Amino acid sequence: MDSLISFQKIFSLLKKIFSSYWIRSAFFSILQRFSVSFFGLINLIVLVRTLSKPEMGAWALFLVVTTIFEQTKTGLLKNAHIRYVSSSNESTEKSAIASSSFLINVSITGLFILLIVLFSDWVSVRLHTGMELAAMLKWFIPGLICMVFFSHLEAIQQSFLDFKGVFAGYFVRQAVFFLCIGGCLVLHIHYSLLDVVLYQSLGFLLGTLVIFYYSRRYLEYRFNPTVAWIKQILGYGKYIFASGAISNIFSNLDQLMTGTFMTSSVVADYNAALRINSLLDIPSYAAADIIFPKSARASVEEGVEKVRYLFERMVGILLSFSTPIALFIIIFPKLVIWLIAGSSYLSAAPILQLYMITGLIRPMQNQSANLLNSIGKQAIGFWMNTFALIANLLINYACLKTIGYYGAAVGSTLSYSLALIAWYFLMRRLIGFHPRNIWKYMLETYVTIYSFAMQFIRRKPQTP
User: Fold this and answer.
1) pLDDT tens digits for 257-268?
2) pLDDT tens, 406-443?
3) Of 29, 375, 440, 450, which is least surrounded by CB within 10 A?
4) Please, what sign has the CA dihedral across residues 196, 199, 205, 206?
5) Which residues contact 164 (CB under 8 A, 6 or more apart)?
């Protein structure tokens, strides 16, 4: 009887906790981001043991091209979709917004497919992958079509402040791909890069079906796009689209430049370090999904003080989690590389150390860019990212020519450091940002975790 009462209390407590928007949203959003990075890491562990270094380099460049496209398109449509739908109370208007967003989505994807057909051969040769990259991109066209529906349903879910279906869709999408390559490894079935691309498309297809299942109650099943809403979405998102494209190129410029000036084998080393480094971005990108609708409302209803509080607190919390992880990896880079990618990738250890430094810089930059989008200052974010990309391009080029193998990693670290200084002064001017508050919120987070841990340790077991 006592155990039943205890279970009811636990269930009641969990229900109360998950009634909070912040807790519920953070839980599913972080789970979604974690599943993407976790499976990305697990998939890397499998692929490096079945593909050669040149093949891994070609696969890394394929992911760079498709990820830049996916994230840039999502940046254009999702933010506008969420902003307008969440602020509208009319069913017909919400349907028009969703339909207009979907039409833009289809058009952009169609244009990208056309570019693949026309220019993928040239890009493949330029990046020293022979014809492999071109073939992979062409075989992924069915996956791009699935991506249209996946990203549209993701925006619909988040516009209604629902993150559960997004997590489920991403989880299935990643899990299916892992089961395909993992099954081949266990059963000793040989697969080519084109097979890997087909597994990726299958994951997108099944993930789309899952996210559709969770999105059904939000769908109007009407296709009524309007010219006015198309213009408004594009008008809102044009700077986000351009800024997102530049930001995504900035994030992957080291791989693109090493592929251009060196070999795909070098790209494989950089990709291994980047995959590990991406673990630090899980909380940051999850926080961006949660903070965006809140900051958008706060900027209108509560003013700059609330916006600054949200920004500083979130950056402080993010750094409190990422700092210990980064320090551990900086101290033991070879151990981490050996465990994940194997001994043939140990040369990437210094690259990983430098990337961990940039990983500590990115939370503030990511949240700053997200904040500008949420308060309607997309143009400023666009120009910040443009100047950062130009600086990164020049610095990376100089470092590659003078340092060689590690040049892109050194150049990226210098570029991120300079960008951090620029973002600091911009945030100080726009919202009165105070760096000391970051340390305060970091300390508060550690104190909270410590207090919770001590309460758990000191808790006395109940006597029967």
Assistant:
1) 887 777 777 888
2) 888 898 889 889 988 988 888 888 878 888 888 888 88
3) 450
4) negative
5) 28, 157, 214
